[in-house]
Design a protein that fits this description.
By secondary structure, the chain is α+β, with helices and mostly antiparallel strands. It folds into 2 domains: about 5-125 and about 165-170, Zincin-like, CATH 3.30.2010; about 130-160, no CATH class. It is built from 4 helices and 5 strands; from the N terminus they run H-E-E-E-H-H-E-E-H. It has helices at about 5-30, 80-95, 105-120, 160-165; strands at about 40-45, 55, 65-70, 130-140, 150-155. It has a 3-stranded mixed β-sheet with strand order 1-3-2. The structure holds zinc ion (ZN). Zinc ion binds near residues 87, 91 and 103.
């Protein structure tokens, strides 16, 4: 592919240094995801959901997945951009592998257990479903001598790190994490 027809050069024309940076970050982390292509479209803009700073989408109108990175992320520093790129690259890798790619799946949890030593520099022992615990409660339908048991078992949500898992890896960085240099990113 000619240099001027890469997604990187297109992104650099559209978003300057920020556009080039997301592609360099993609190259830098691609060894973590052997099934990812050499390059894919990376869009910088305002993501469809307010609370998300990145998004991975694929549909029939596109010839493959593309990644969207929020423009305001670049003012937090390039190492935060890297974290969101890794997060979105994991979604992309799972999609291309034909696996479920949502956060609340075994595939997501297995991937972050495997990748954390390489991305965070330490193991992460997270288990899906640990936010639900069985609790035994009195059965409101119980009557002495009736057919209903005296107690019933319910699954209840308990505090867990699923919310953090769904924002991996950035949510596991220390509070004083050095975000790296910022990049001025044009917004539209
Ligand atoms: Zn996600």
């Amino acid at each position: 592919m000619r240099e001027d027809t890469t997604y990187r050069s297109a992104a650099e024309k559209l978003w300057g240094k920020a556009g080039a940076y997301v592609h360099d970050s993609y190259d830098q982390h691609r060894h973590l995801f052997p099934n990812l292509p050499d390059q894919l479209p990376i869009v910088i803009g305002i993501t469809a959901y307010g609370r998300c700073i990145g998004l991975t989408r694929t549909n029939e109108a596109l010839d493959g997945p593309r990644i969207t990175i929020a423009s305001n992320l670049f003012s937090r520093g390039t190492r935060h951009v890297d974290d969101v790129m890794v997060h979105e690259m994991l979604h992309t890798s799972l999609i291309l592998a034909g696996k479920p790619s949502d956060h609340d799946t075994e595939a997501w949890y297995a991937a972050i257990r495997e990748l954390s030593p390489h991305v965070l520099g330490h193991r992460l022992d997270v288990k899906r479903g640990s936010d639900r615990k069985s609790v035994r409660l009195p059965n409101p339908n119980y009557v002495p001598g009736g057919d209903e048991p005296r107690t019933i078992v319910r699954k209840e949500r308990v505090a867990s790190n699923h919310e953090k898992v769904s924002r991996w890896p950035n949510s596991f960085r220390p509070d004083d994490y050095d975000g790296g240099p910022t990049i001025l990113c044009p917004t539209y």
